[in-house]
Design brief:
The protein is 47% helix and 20% strand. It has 251 residues and is an alpha+beta fold. Strand 5 (212-218) and strand 6 form a beta hairpin. The longest helix is centred in the N-terminal third of the chain and has 21 residues, at 10-30.
């Protein structure tokens, strides 16, 4: 099964992009090849670019505090485990405190590293990090993998609180939805969204493998999924088959 997620606003879109980049970064750092560590460094710069939005940190802190207040209001409810409640609140507090203690935007501490910024200024230029352009960077790539990995982990440390906050918030958001089976008749599915709730994320889980691709759209009033099939050359064509898939709306 393949899971697709569709954000309903710009804030969730930014959070999903950052989550995607942090996931890629974790995979690249764990590898040993110098080229993987090159792209890990490139991913760090991408995270800094996406996280440069001035209000991102304050928005995440507000969302964390909002969730904490919602959980605190459940205290004393006999149908809710106090142990599970305490654990959830502790995770939120840890993410809030970690993000709040770092001044400025995510990765701001790295901008004072002239060596890193010299790489950042050239890494988007095709071939711009060749050994004759950045000999010091080329020399760094010749170190053993553990040396490079240690450096990367040190640079990532200033981004870790952001990653933890995203993990908590997106985890809570995904847990708020209840998956259910729906049918795309003739490859098309539409659902009018219930009023009184603000949905932030739609999740579509397909069983048909990578040959079937959903085109997802949505807003506060309606969600829509159009199923497409890839031909041998990768071109997408509308599917006309009745197809069952799993839909989750998260608020």
């Amino acid at each position: 099964m393949i899971l697709y997620e569709y954000p309903f606003n710009e804030s969730i879109r930014t959070m999903l992009r950052l989550e995607h980049l942090f996931d890629r970064l974790g995979q690249l750092i764990a590898r040993d090849a110098a080229v993987d560590h090159h792209y890990a460094l490139s991913t760090i710069f991408e995270i800094m670019d996406v996280a440069a939005r001035a209000d991102l940190k304050s928005d995440l802190l507000k969302d964390l505090d909002k969730h904490k207040q919602q959980f605190v209001a459940y205290r004393g409810n006999p149908s809710i485990s106090e142990e599970a409640l305490d654990e959830a609140i502790a995770r939120i507090d840890h993410a809030f405190n970690g993000l709040n203690q770092f001044p400025g935007k995510a990765g701001a501490a790295l901008t004072g590293n002239e060596w890193l910024m010299s790489i950042r200024s050239r890494i988007s230029i095709p071939g711009g990090t060749c050994e004759f352009d950045l000999p010091a960077y080329y020399a760094w790539q010749q170190f053993d993998p553990q040396h490079r990995r240690s450096d990367l982990m040190g640079w990532v440390a200033s981004l870790t609180p952001l990653a933890e906050a995203l993990q908590v918030l997106l985890g809570l958001l995904r847990e708020s939805g209840v998956p259910h089976k729906v049918v795309a008749s003739g490859g098309q599915f539409q659902q009018i969204l219930p009023q009184g709730r603000t949905f932030l994320l739609m999740r579509v889980r397909l069983q048909d493998g990578p040959e079937m691709v959903p085109e997802i759209s949505g807003h506060r009033l309606m969600a829509s999924v159009r199923l497409m099939r890839q031909d041998a050359e990768g071109r997408l064509k509308p599917s006309t088959a009745d197809t069952t898939f799993e839909l989750t709306l998260c608020s």
